[in-house]
Design brief:
The chain is an all-alpha fold. The chain has helices at 3-11, 13-16, 39-50, 63-77, 90-109, 121-134, 142-147, 176-191, 193-208, 211-236, 244-251, 293-302, 316-321, 326-336, 342-349, 352-390, 409-422; strands at 117-119, 150-152, 166-168, 267-269. The strands form 2 sheets. A two-stranded parallel ribbon has the order 1-4. Strands 2-3 form a two-stranded antiparallel ribbon. It is globular. The protein starts with a helix and ends with a helix. InterPro entries: Indolamine_dOase (IPR000898), Trp/Indoleamine_2_3_dOase-like (IPR037217).
Length: 426
């Protein structure tokens, strides 16, 4: 890979869908509605939001609420099985995936807690087919909730989204807590664009490799540390308008994937055996910040190793890449294949100023993960304990609290933080 290719890696949006101004977020407002041929999907999603459907395992759910949910689910089962073959662009397919995924999660999570999860053909077949073409799992992902789920807060002179001028388009609860949860990630994606530019410039200098390049890279890494520190501030800012208990009890349960189901129910996709081109999905974890390409690219660039230590078993971070848009995965693969990685260059340079600047950036990433642990404690572990006390369950026993990606949350966060700390060069 030469210097020109290093630059192209970060700037050719046609290849990787990574925009110089908006990063992994699309540079223009995502499609707001599918064409008329797929209006039944849009209309049934609108109906779920308008009806304010409730979670099936909501404490003290009323008979009226149960009846409303079942009435809506009956309408879903009566939908026609619409073809996806005419969804002939990534933009249309992404919108279809988002709409179908929200419908599917509304359907599953509004079911009574002990009812089997049978996803009806009008939803299961289209989402399986659209997901196959997108090479993504057939359920809600981070891309659906954050990357392709925004509109402008006010008219914009430029098409590129600004950090203070985006709002969320589609939500389960329409609570400010849900919107702020999504927007927290969106702001991190947009602020992280400068980090992508720093990476591009750094890679160009690595291929020059002289003392002037070393000096410039030191400056770039100091900038990188400052950007990551700003990402940490944005992460902590979620506390301003997203309240822990409403988020945990009224928002987060809608995200649950199969591996986070409290009753360990298997998701059955009706009609799967009718189409030989379809295969049973194996990845059914809900949307997670671990699916953010921005977080992964920081790890890859700085040389944080999240590979599994168990032979033949993929690490959580590796699994989460399969939930990303395909071109973003290709971007990460391309970056990972760089024959002159930054960490090795720093170690070989013998330059103390470069070493200090590199460690400064890694420490900033470690502190970002410290903040993630604080947020997880505030928004998940604390509310989980309070909820357990309300139903008189001993939260110190039984299964560990799971993240939306289906992992043991505390173990995962500690592991990723430890892997980051281990990247610091003595």
């Amino acid at each position: 890979m030469d210097s020109h290719k290093a630059s192209v890696l970060f700037q050719d949006a046609n290849v990787f869908d990574v925009d110089p101004q908006s990063g992994f977020m699309p540079p223009e407002e995502p499609l707001s509605r599918l064409p008329d041929a797929w209006e039944p999907w849009e209309a049934i999603l609108d109906a779920a939001i308008t009806a304010k459907l409730q979670l099936g395992d909501k404490p003290r759910i009323t008979e009226t609420e149960k009846s409303s949910s079942e009435s809506w689910r009956a309408r879903v089962r009566e939908l026609p099985v619409l073809s996806t073959s005419a969804l002939d662009s990534p933009i249309l397919l992404r919108r279809a995936h988002l709409v179908l995924a929200y419908i599917m999660h509304f359907y599953i999570q509004s079911l009574p807690p002990h009812a089997p999860v049978l996803i009806p053909r009008p939803i299961s077949l289209p989402i399986l087919r659209a997901s196959t073409r997108l090479d993504m799992p057939p359920l809600l992902t981070y891309a659906d909730t954050v990357l392709y789920n925004w509109t402008y807060k006010r008219p914009s002179e430029t098409k590129v989204p600004a950090i203070d001028n985006v709002r969320t388009r589609t939500m389960f609860s329409n609570l400010i807590d849900e919107e702020e949860f999504y927007l927290c990630s969106a702001r991190i994606e947009l602020r992280g664009v400068e980090a992508l530019e720093v990476m591009r410039a750094t890679m160009d200098e690595i291929f020059i490799g002289d003392q002037t390049a070393v000096r410039r890279i030191s400056g770039y890494l100091q900038t990188m540390a400052a950007v990551i520190n700003e990402l940490k501030v944005l992460l902590m800012d979620v506390r301003r308008e997203c309240r822990p208990d409403p988020y945990y009890n009224e928002v987060r349960p809608w995200f649950r994937g199969e591996d986070s189901d409290l009753e360990h129910r298997k998701w059955v996709f009706e009609g799967l055996d009718e189409d030989p081109s379809l295969v049973a999905p194996t990845e059914l974890s809900g949307p997670s910040a671990g699916q953010s390409s921005m977080v992964h690219v920081l790890d890859v660039f700085l040389g944080v190793d999240h590979q599994s230590t168990s032979p033949g078993k993929r690490s959580f971070m590796s699994r989460m890449q399969s939930y990303m848009p395909r071109n973003h995965r290709l971007f990460l693969d391309h970056l990972s294949s760089n024959p002159r990685p930054l960490r090795a260059f720093v170690m070989a340079s013998g330059d103390s100023a470069l070493l200090d600047a590199y460690n400064l950036a890694v420490v900033a990433l470690k502190e970002f993960r410290d903040s993630h642990m604080i947020i997880a404690t505030l928004y998940i572990l604390g509310p989980a304990r309070r909820a357990a006390k309300l139903v008189k369950v001993d939260s110190s026993k039984g299964e560990p609290v799971k993240g939306t990606g289906g992992t043991d949350l505390v173990k995962f966060l500690k592991d990723t933080r430890n892997r980051t700390t281990e990247t610091i060069i003595p």
